[in-house]
Write a structure and sequence with these properties.
The chain is an all-alpha fold and 189 residues long. It contains ten helices and no strands.
């Protein structure tokens, strides 16, 4: 899929505010691709399409988990975790995107996972640090990316912050997120 079509696909599906967020994620991802020698086109596409299923009906997401034989543990979660894997399935089935780097980046942009590829890590981080994000600690993570050029430390720091947030809400934590924390805790050194 080319940029123009990806922009159209995202703009037609997402509310304007979410589409603008996706544009900022794509732009941030392209900047990061320059720093970390990653494919800019793949980063742009994954960034603009990452939230494609953010507003899908939950019951249909659960059906997709079952019919596509995705990780059955996903049935314990809601949109926050599900929209990435569901969007990846839709990109493959509906739009014939077969590039595994793009699909993995979309699928894991909320949960992370151990041993992520470069595009996955970039989208995971870009989604968290895009310019309009203002959560506590985001400037520190921007410095880790743009000053220290340490992508693994950024992944670890974001995962740690996400887990703290989930623990404070007494939320269940997806196993891939825990694996991501443990893996990047070791990798960051």
């Amino acid at each position: 899929m080319k940029r123009k079509k990806a922009l159209k696909v995202a703009a037609e599906k997402l509310p304007k505010k979410r589409f603008k967020h996706s544009e900022r994620v794509a732009e941030t991802a392209v900047k990061m691709a320059e720093i970390f020698n990653a494919d800019k086109e793949k980063c742009f596409l994954a960034g603009i399409l990452h939230d494609y299923s953010k507003y899908d009906e939950l019951s249909k997401m659960y059906q997709t988990v079952t019919t596509e034989k995705l990780d059955p543990e996903l049935l314990q979660y809601k949109t926050e975790v599900l929209h990435g894997p569901i969007a990846a399935v839709k990109m493959k089935n509906k739009f014939d995107i077969t590039d595994e780097e793009i699909l993995n980046a979309i699928a894991h942009h909320t949960s992370g996972r151990k041993q992520m590829g470069i595009i996955e890590k970039i989208i995971f981080v870009a989604d968290y640090i895009e310019p309009k994000r203002s959560q506590p600690g985001v400037d520190d993570i921007r410095d880790i990316v743009f000053e220290e050029n340490n992508l693994d430390l950024a992944v670890y720091s974001i995962t740690k912050a996400n887990i703290r947030h989930l623990l404070n809400k007494d939320s269940t934590i997806y196993h891939k997120t825990l694996e991501c924390l443990n893996y990047y805790n070791m990798a960051r050194e």
